[in-house]
């Protein structure tokens, strides 16, 4: 695993974009795995900025997102579908037919999503990390063999995400559909970005801890091509 420590969030976003640009310019038809949460927003802004400067095009790019809440309308302001449109897709030249997010709550919805991904393979998977080291919405205890599945969100995650729902935990969906850990591990390259002292324990567990399902991100130690881009606060326990 390659670890890049940056002084602050702005630098994390710029370093992450360097990795993204290298992949985007390496071939014609790139497949990206994308994440939500506040951490990738700076990276998405860098992508939009460089697209507007005419340096990169997403015309032939296809994207798959990690996850989506169960039980909220796609057009809900806090759905990940809305998040991706407002934070990235509206600002680049991607064909929205090629921006694919999981949706639904049945085993068939999960199998269909997995099938749509297995037709291609993800060149670069962007990941954030939860305070409890979850990746996607794969909470501690999720099997490393998991494919796309329905997840019961843990209380810690509901609490973390309440900030997007008027700080009201009762408004946060309690379930999500998420790519599984085995799905994520199939990507050719992974970039995980983290910022802030509240991620320091999770980052430590991911890089230096035992590889265990209790710390979902620790599985990335077994992936051949992972780049971790963190700020000093998130790296403080390494
Ligand atoms: C959510 C998302 C994750 C994300 C995590 C951290 O739970 N499902 O993909 O990594 O939040 O979010 P943030 O970047 O806002 O700290």
Kindly summarize this structure in a few lines:
The chain has 238 residues and is of the alpha/beta class.
Give a verbal description of the structure:
It is globular, with a radius of gyration of 16 Å. The strands form two sheets. It has a seven-stranded parallel sheet with strand order 1-10-9-6-2-3-5, covered by helices on one side. It has a three-stranded antiparallel sheet with strand order 4-8-7. The chain has one domain: Rossmann fold. Strand 9, helix 7 and strand 10 (226-231) form a beta-alpha-beta unit. The protein has seven helices and ten strands. The mean pLDDT is 97. It has 238 residues and is an alpha/beta fold. Bound molecules: 2-amino-2-deoxy-6-O-phosphono-alpha-D-glucopyranose.
